[in-house]
Every structure is written in C-alpha cells, then in structure tokens.
Amino acid sequence: xxxxxxxxxxxxxxxxxxxxxxxxxxxxxxxxxxxxxxxxxxxxxxxxxxxxxxxxxxxxxxxxxxxxxxxxxxxxxxxxxxxxxxxxxxxxxxxxxxxxxxxxxxxxxxxxxxxxxxxxxxxxxxxxxxxxxxxxxxxxxxxxxxxxxxxxxxxxxxxxxxxxxxxxxxxxxxxxxxxxxxxxxxxxxxxxxxxxxxxxxxxxxxxxxxxxxxxxxxxxxxxxxxxxxxxxxxxxxxxxxxxxxxxxxxxxxxxxxxxxxxxxxxxxxxxxxxxxxxxxxxxxxxxxxxxxxxxxxxxxxxxxxxxxxxxxxxxxxxxxxxxxxxxxxxxxxxxxxxxxxxxxxxx
Length: 347
Ligand SMILES: C[S@@+](CC[C@H](N)C(=O)[O-])C[C@H]1O[C@@H](n2cnc3c(N)ncnc32)[C@H](O)[C@@H]1O
Prior knowledge:
The protein is 40% helix and 14% strand. It is an alpha/beta fold. The chain has two domains: 7-62 and 187-220 and 251-345, 3-Layer(aba) Sandwich (Rossmann fold), CATH 3.40.50; 66-182, no CATH class. Strand 1, helix 2 (32-39) and strand 2 (43-47) form a beta-alpha-beta unit. Bound molecules: S-adenosylmethionine. S-adenosylmethionine binds at residues 2-4, 27, 29-30, 32, 48-50, 53, 196-197, 214, 216, 223, 245-246.
C-alpha cells in the first residue's frame, strides 16, 4: 500500500550516489528502495515500525541460499507430521478462511518460525505471508484479494453469497513451488531495523549518502487493519500495529512528527548527502480541499531545520498519462492523485 515503483528509487539512486554509497529508507514499506539499492551495489539500510513491512524489506535484502531454505522447509514439515495441533481455540475469523488441513500447518509454522532471530525463518515467513491469501491455486485461502485483507464481516458475507469452500492446500508444497518460481539472490546484503522513524540511533552521524523514502501521510491508511490476516500469522492484531505507527489527520501533529524525523535525517546525512521525500497531496477531512503536504513539510519542517531545496519541488500527476511528466519513466496509471518529490540537502 502507498508504494512507489522501483523505477523511482532507481532514478534518484543513480542521480545522487555511486557504488558503495549508503542509501537509507526510514519508512521502507515493502522494501522497494532497499532492494533497488542492493541491486545497484549500494549499501542499503531500511527501517519500518510495522513488523510486516520489516519482514518484507529484510527478506528482499538478506536472502539465504536456496538449498538452506529447502532444507529448513523439509525439517519443519517432518516435525509438523509428528505434532498434533488443536484448532478448537482458533479464532473463527481465521477458521473461515483456511481449511482445517491448511490451518494446522499454518499454526505449526506460526508457532515455530523464529523470524525475529533467524534469517532463513524470516525468509520462509515472508513466503508464507506472500501466499497466505489470494485468488489462485498458488494461495492458501479461499478466493480473496492478495494485496490487502478484506474485513472479517465482508469475507463472511462474501463466502455466503458465493458459496465458497475452503480449499485443502499444502503449505509446505506451495512454499517449495514458490521458491522454485521466484528465488533470486541480490549479491549485496542490506540492513533492516524495526524502529520508530523518529529515532534513528542505530545509524551513525553523517554516514548516509542518500535518504530516499515516502513517509506516511495524513491520509487514512490503516496499514495494520488492512493486513489483519498476515498480522495474525505474525502473532499480532491490526490494531496493535496501527497503534505503533504514525496515524493522525491533524496537520500540527504531522508536522511535529515530520520535524522529528527530519531532525534525525539531518543528523545521519553526510555533509553533501541528499534526502528525497515522496509525499502525496491529501484531502482535508472537513473542507474537502486538497492539501499540498509536501509544501507544508518543506516550509514548516525542513526549512526551519536548515535544509535547502536542491531543485524546485517535483510534481507527478499520477492518473492521466498525457499530463504526466514522469521523470522516472513509469507509465502505469492509478487513481488521480498528485505525488510531490522534495529533494533536500543540508544547509
Ligand atoms: C508510504 S508507506 C512506504 C511505502 C514504500 N515506499 C513502498 O514502496 O513500499 C509508509 C510506511 O511507513 C511506515 N510507518 C508509519 N509510521 C511509522 C513510524 N512512526 N516509524 C517507522 N515507520 C512507520 C508504515 O508501516 C509504511 O510501511
């Protein structure tokens, strides 16, 4: 959600860094900047407070060998076969999505994958999250969208209306197929953290060549709630995750948050480093007016901290290809919205 195409980080990484330089994304989401930086032989650092985003980012830049992943899947499968799993206490909202056969395997994996401490397990966890729900034979759930989780009530009604049945899918088998289909290993490894972006103490002063990120907006995106099924697998509720992330429609609160983030960005940037922030326009909830959030971040947060604009704020109108000056060459249209790019340097 709220993600940018790989061509965007590619453009700015090429423009502002060289091989071996450090590229940092403090709101890394699904890990687009970090993966692109690794592929371009830069030292990539990512961070996201949402554990789901953390796992997706880590998996893209810390890829174990294929053989070790296959071995671990085989080991887990063997142990699963000698374990009995009781589904009686399992949440009804989850039980309506997966067959008992599939759910037993999922619960075993949920309880035994050590994604916090073991890179192979993090990778397998990300693969499970990728195939957890969707609408083809490669997914574990009954037919539903892959990109986000519909609400439990919506799913319940949808099942009734379309008389859907939960398919018996073998998690271990689908994991092996996914691995054979998708496995790639970037040569350079990145580092990823799971911290609030207002505190970047894990990064040394003046060590980053380029910060490239799209921070959360005041626009309402409940990253946790929209991913409640994947978060169930990680042992969290959508609500718990949303409480940890920045979420407010108040401009003063947003400015306060972004000032703290920019203060940290200023500290970690090298003297001639750049910070590229992609910030979309938002609609004011009461007046319905469009708010140019990028301009507000520039005037109320970045400029007072002594940042300078490297170039005038870049505007990218996303929906209508004929109007678009898409400097990074991605032509796909989406809902009408304006994204703006702030390119900052220290004073
Ligand atoms: C606009 S999205 C980034 C999307 C990313 N550019 C991509 O292409 O996938 C913003 C991200 O900020 C994260 N986030 C929100 N509040 C945060 C906070 N206080 N600290 C760190 N990350 C946060 C969200 O989890 C979300 O992944």
